[in-house]
Amino acid sequence: MEARSVWLPKRGHSLDEYEDAGAADPALGRFAIADGATESSFAGPWARLLADGFVSAAGPQPGRWSDWLPALQQRWLEQFRDKELAWYAEAKLEDGAFATFLGLTLCAPTGFFMERRKWHAVAVGDGCLFQVRDNELYRPFPIERAEDFGNTPWLIGSRNDSSKSLRQKELRAKGDWRTGDCFWLMTDALAQWFLTDIEACGTPWTKLEAVLGSDDSQERFADWVEDQRDRQALKNDDVTLIVVNV
């Protein structure tokens, strides 16, 4: 497996204000993206903990939230609990940070089960996964239409979310993969553009491949995103993309 990642903060915002996150471990077949909610405090660090925590969790694949999420919630709190904060920041700290999340695991075939090439995904909110096979969209998850994006996606909280509440918010999916498949993981603004282009009979993955197919892919991606923003084809939001080629 090969994974590439590119990203860009909102226009008018610094790199320090970027609140998305992405993580990838092709050796484990594990990938994740998260999108911190701007209205909550310290959302960027929370998004990074979620993405990194999923990818590095023990076991063949992260299953129950209770197996890996509580430790991340504790780590997030410890980062800020002893810092001197303004009174309004203290109140925000009590509320916690929030983020959408999408995690993908590609299970490698082994032993007598070489034909069993499976993937599993879990989503809370509007981060999206698109599986492309033979130059066609084979599987979208969890959102299938551009019009289905809204302003109040489900979020994972750093303070009060329990496994029980997350089971009510989560969506899970599984499928098969084969050599030549490509998985595109992206946060909401880019995912909405992706689906809009598909609905206009386009092949957005070929447009992105043209941008990413060079040594300076991060710079070219930044230029492309700004151009799409100028055309009002892409919302001005943090953008994160991970591409997994099998």
Whole-number radius of gyration? Answer: 18 Å
Number of helices: 7
**How is the main sheet built?**
6 strands, antiparallel
By CATH, the topology is Phosphatase 2c, domain 1
List the helices and strands and how they pair.
Elements: E1 2-8, E2 20-25, E3 30-36, H1 43-56, H2 69-80, H3 87-95, E4 98-107, E5 118-124, E6 128-133, E7 136-141, E8 156-157, H4 163-169, E9 171-176, E10 182-186, H5 188-199, H6 204-212, H7 217-230, E11 239-245
Antiparallel strand pairs: 1-11, 2-3, 3-4, 4-5, 4-8, 5-9, 6-7, 6-10, 10-11
Helix pairs in contact: 1-2
Please characterize this protein's 3D structure.
The protein has 246 residues and is of the alpha+beta class. It has one domain: Phosphatase 2c, domain 1. It is built from 7 helices and 11 strands. Strands 2, 3, 4, 5, 8 and 9 form a 6-stranded antiparallel β-sheet that branches. Strands 1-11-10-6-7 form a 5-stranded antiparallel β-sheet.
Short synopsis of the structure:
The protein has 246 residues and is an alpha+beta fold.
Which features would summarize this protein structure in a list?
about 30% strand; alpha+beta; globular; Phosphatase 2c, domain 1; six-stranded antiparallel β-sheet; 11 strands; 7 helices; about 250 residues
